[in-house]
Amino acid sequence: MSSHPLEPIFHPRGTALVGVPSDPNGPGGSGGFLTSIMEQGYHERFGLYPVNPKATEIAGLKCYPTLLDIDAPVDHVISLVPARVVPTLVEQAIQKGIRSIHFFTAGFSETGDAEMAQMERTMVKRLTDAGIRVIGPNCMGLYVPGVGLAFMGGFPKEPGNVMLISQSGANAGDVVHNLGRRGARFSKVISFGNGSDLRAHHFLDYAISDEQTEVVTAYIEGVQDGRKFFEAVKRLAAVKPTILLKGGLTGAGARAAHSHTGSLAGSTQVFDAMCRQTGAFRAETMEDLHDLTIAVTTGLKRVKGRDVALVGGGGGFAVLSSDSLAREGLDLPPAPQELKDALHEFMPIAGTSANNPFDTNMSTPELSERALRIVARGPFDVVIATPSFDRPQRGPDDEPLDTEAKRKHALEAAEKAAEQFGRLQAETGVPFIALMRDRGASPEVADRFAQEAYRRGVAVYPTIHRAARAVAGLLEWRERRAGLPDII
Predict the structure, then answer these.
(1) 44, 380, 384, 437: which sits with the fewest CB atoms below 10 Å from its CB?
(2) How far is residue 244 from each of residues 23, 48, 84, 372, 383, measured CA to CA in Å?
(3) Nearest-CA neighbor of 164 among 135, 184, 136?
(4) 158-296 in CATH: which number?
(5) For residues 98 and 90, is the Cβ–Cβ distance under 8 A?
(6) Residues 324-381: pLDDT tens digits?
């Protein structure tokens, strides 16, 4: 643990959920906090205390009528009560001596109502004067897999090296789920909503000293305390890859942001200039944020130039892929003659292409490995290839395989293909991109391949366009960081 003043927020020894419904699986959504935290196993290591005066037990846990009735230390409170009950909870939290409170509760400054905005300011001042830090209101709060906190179900239990800071809870959940399926794991995720006390710059500053965090991504709607935000990004981006996605840069987006978190949006030009000056990367879309995060946390971060080898996929795919690569400023240089000769030793001349793009026989893992190893010896900065999965329909006894046997074999084949890509990347020193365009693979098999490939340092992308955009973005980012520490 670092000595940063925010460190204790991420390590609560006891957490109370005030206002959790009697049926945590019922409608309304607030019960999901309890089930998500229990899914992570927090209650097996620390105190987890549901608070609801109408219940004595919820989900097998003792339930308390009020926060003050909990006969154990409580460091962190998750407020699920209506806004009208918040003043009472604030006084109880101060009396209980908690360290932090997260308000899932909404209905404050984001509504535009002057009275509710004043209530927000009053409660925050009361809490912070007592030394209690506030996350929110109007947010999903914390996901810290290292201790077992979560705000949605299905989040990975394993901690990782990516921190996400987001004003939007829904966007935060989407990032965790989508990047989690691609293999990424998180150190901390913070959804901070209105940012009445703790804001983006506080968490960016914390990320600098967090040893678990190696890459930082952020979704921001309105920049609060602009100078502090700029300085925090500047310090952070000098030592860790920092990827920022700014919402509300159009008129319609700005109106949506204001109604969502009460944020006032700024201009694209100002945000672009801030990123250029600090060395951060401005993602234009959520896909960019996802794809750049994959790039800087895999072997792809070592790519040095724009010369691409494209392997497999067929003639029509090669034509359209070449266009996509060229639009992103990447090149497909011709293959040297000795490389073509080596490929022709095991592939026919008719119906294939030993030039770049390479339309080779990748029908078996053995042919795939042979072709990829040869191509990686060429004058290329990155190899993009579609993995080959072996799909036998019959077993060793020549009997047809049943559905479950086919499923198990497909998962094993996905793991073997991922191992092959990882081994080739490690042995050749050339960054590999696996293009997950296999139309015959089930979502389960595709996810297994992506996660196993990521674990071995291989970037996986669903389309050639996104792969090309990630490579080009990484190279441009590095060029813009000239004069700053070499961290990507």
Answers:
(1) 44
(2) 38, 34, 35, 35, 27
(3) 184
(4) 3.40.50.261
(5) no
(6) 999 999 999 999 999 999 998 887 664 457 889 998 767 788 888 999 999 999 999 9
Q: How far apart are CA 370 and CA 418, in angstroms?
A: 15
Give the whole-angstrom CA distance, residue 35 versus residue 78. 13
The answer to whether the peptide bond before residue 357 is cis (omega within 30 degrees of 0) is: yes
Cis peptide before 137 (omega within 30 of 0): yes
Q: What is the pLDDT of residues 407-444, one digit of tens each?
A: 898 899 999 999 999 999 999 999 999 998 766 688 89
* Residue from 410, 432, 429 nearest 421 by CA: 432
Sign of CA dihedral 368, 373, 374, 380: positive
**Going along 155-297, which residue ranges are E strands?**
159-166, 186-191, 215-220, 242-246, 281-283
Q: Which residues have C-beta within 8 Å of that of residue 184, sequence separation ≥ 6?
A: 160, 162, 293, 294, 297, 454
Alpha-carbon distance of 134 to 121, in angstroms, equals 11
Within its chain, how far is the Cα of 278 from the centroid?
22
State the alpha helices, DSSP H only, in 130-190: 169-181
- Record the tokens describing residue 354, joined without a space: 């030993």
| Phi, psi dihedral angles at 126 (to 5 degrees) | -60, -45
Topology match between the domains 7-138 and 302-480: yes
Closest CA to 239 of 293, 180, 183, 280: 280
263: Cβ contacts below 8 Å, ≥ 6 apart: 167, 221, 222, 224, 248, 257
b/e per residue, 354-368, with b = 16+ CB within 10 A? bebbbbbbbeebeeb
Domain ranges of the chain: 7-138, 158-296, 302-480
CB 268 within 8 A of CB 249: yes
Token pair of 167 as six digits? 């004003």
Among the CATH numbers 3.40.50.261, 3.40.50.2000, 3.30.300.30, 2.130.10.10, which is that of 302-480? 3.40.50.261
259-300 pLDDT per residue, tens: 545 444 457 888 899 999 999 999 999 999 999 999 999 999
H/E segment holding residue 102: strand 100-103
Q: Is residue 402 exposed (0-12), middle (13-18) or buried (19+ Cβ within 10 Å)?
A: exposed
Q: How many CA atoms lie within 13 A of 61 on its CB side?
A: 28
